[in-house]
Amino acid sequence: MTRTLKYFLCGIVALAAGANAAPSCPASTTTPTDPVATGQTFEAEDAVLSGTVVDTAQTGFTGTGYVTGFEDATDKVTFIVDSATTKLYDLSIRAAAIYGDKRTSVVLNGGASSEVFFAAGETFADVPAGQLLLNEGSNTIDIVSNWGWYLIDSITITPSATRPAHQINAAPVNAAADTNAKALYTYLRSIYGKKILSGQQELSYANWIAEQTGKTPALVSVDLMDYSPSRVERGTKGTAVEEAIEHSNRGGLVSVLWHWNAPTGLYDTEEHKWWSGFYTDATDFDVAAALSSTTNANYTLLIRDIDAIAVELKRLQAANVPMLFRPLHEAEGAWFWWGAKGPEPAKKLYGILYDRLTNHHQINNLIWVWNSILPEWYPGDATVDILSADVYAQGNGPMSTQYNQLIELGQDKKMIAAAEVGAAPLPDQLQAYEAHWLWFAVWGDTFINNADWNSPENLKKIYTSDYVLTLDEIQGWRGA
Ligand SMILES: *[C@@H]1O[C@H](CO)[C@@H](O)[C@H](O)[C@H]1NC(C)=O
C-alpha cells in the first residue's frame, strides 16, 4: 500500500471519528480489504521511481509534487495497487505534456503494455488511459518512458462499468452498396462483440502464419501503394489486387489500405527516396494548397490518382470481392502528407475520395473504414462505416484505451477494428476487457515474424482460440 493511500484512509477514519482523532492517525495499522472498490487516486511522487525524479516547478500538481525525468527507455514510475478480487478498472492519468504531444506506455504487472497519448498542454489534465484488469492481491502499474518528456502527477483507478450493448447501424453508409458489400456488413455486424477476426498484412505472411500455427487468418490486408501513379511512372507494378482475389476466392475477407505516393513534388534524394513519397518528409506536396481550388493543377493530380485507384477497385468489384477500404490511414499522425496540414484538408480529401469513388465511379463494394481516433479528424457519420486505429504496443494487450476512445467517437453505432497492430491481442485479455475489436491485422515484416512482438507461443494461443475466427471458421460468411 502506498503512503498516500494510507493517509487517504486515515482521513476518512479521522472524519468519522472527529477532528480529535487526526493526530494519532498516521500510526494506524488498518488494512483495507479492497482499497480500490470505489476509485482511488495514487500520487506519483509517492510511488516507486526508476530513473525518474520528483519535481515541483510546474504549478497545478496535486499532493506534494509530480514525477518527471522520463528520458531513457526504461525510466518509469511504478504504482503498487491492491485489489480484493480480479477486476476491471478504468485508469486515468493526470499528466502535463508541456513540451508537445507525447506518448507513454502503461505496463500492468510487468506484462501487457498499452500506449496512451498526451495532447500538448500547458497545465495538468486528467487523461483517460484505458482499462486495467487487476489481479486479486498486489499489482504493479508502470508508466514507462516511450516518447518521454512529460510530467506525471497521479493516477486514478475506478471500477469499470459493464459495457452496454452495442448499437451498430443496420446498413452501410453507401445506400447503393452492392450485394457483396451488404453481405459483408451484415456478417461483420453478426459477429461484432462476440468474436474477433484474425488478420494479417500481406498474403505471404498470412500463409506463413498457417505454417506456424496450422490456421490461416480470416482477413488479409493489402496495400494499393504500387498503383500510385507517381510510383507506376517509376516502374512499380502492384500485385495487391491479385492477392486480394486469391484470398477472397478461398473464402477470406479483404482489407485495403493505400500508401498514396504523393502525386508530385517527391524529393527523390538519397535521404528521401521516391518510394517513400507517402511520407510528409519525402515530399513538398501541399495537400491544403492542392485542395484550395478545383482548377488547381495539383487538385487535378489528386483526382488523376484517385481515378487510377478506381481502376483497381473496379477489378475487385468485378471479381465479387467486397472490401474494407481504409484510405488516408493514420492521418492524425501527420507523418503522411495527407495528414501533414491538419484535420481540415484530410477530412476534405476523404470526402472527395468518397464522392469520386462512390458517386462518380459507382464503386459500391466498399465498406468505408476511418483510421484516426481524435474527434477533430473525424469526417463524419455519413461517410464512415467502421472506425479503426493502428496500434503499435508490445505485450499482446487488448488496446482498450483506443477501443474506448473509438466507442466514444462513434457513439457505439460504428463497429471498431484494430486495422494495423504490431502485436496480435491475446483473446482472454480481449474478453476480460470487453475490447470488442472486430478484427486485428498484424503488420508484416519485423512484426509478425519477430518474437519481441509476437512469440510463436502467443501466435499459437491466439490462432487456436475459440474467440478468434480464422479462415476455416468463416467459410460461407456471405450466407450467414
Ligand atoms: C504542385 O505541387 C508541387 C509540389 O509540391 C509544387 O512544386 C507546385 O508549385 C504545385 N503547383 C501548384 C499549381 O500549386
From TrEMBL:
Domain CBM6, residue spans: 40-158
Keywords: Glycosidase, Hydrolase, Signal
Pfam short name (any one): CBM_35
Keyword Transferase found: no
Sequence ranges assigned to domain GH26 in this UniProt record: 179-472
Residues of the active site: 330, 420
GO biological process: substituted mannan metabolic process
Origin superkingdom: Eukaryota
Signal sequence interval, chain numbering: 1-21
GO molecular function: carbohydrate binding; mannan endo-1,4-beta-mannosidase activity
Protein family per UniProt: Belongs to the glycosyl hydrolase 26 family.
Full protein name: Mannan endo-1,4-beta-mannosidase
Annotated organism of origin: Chaetomidium leptoderma
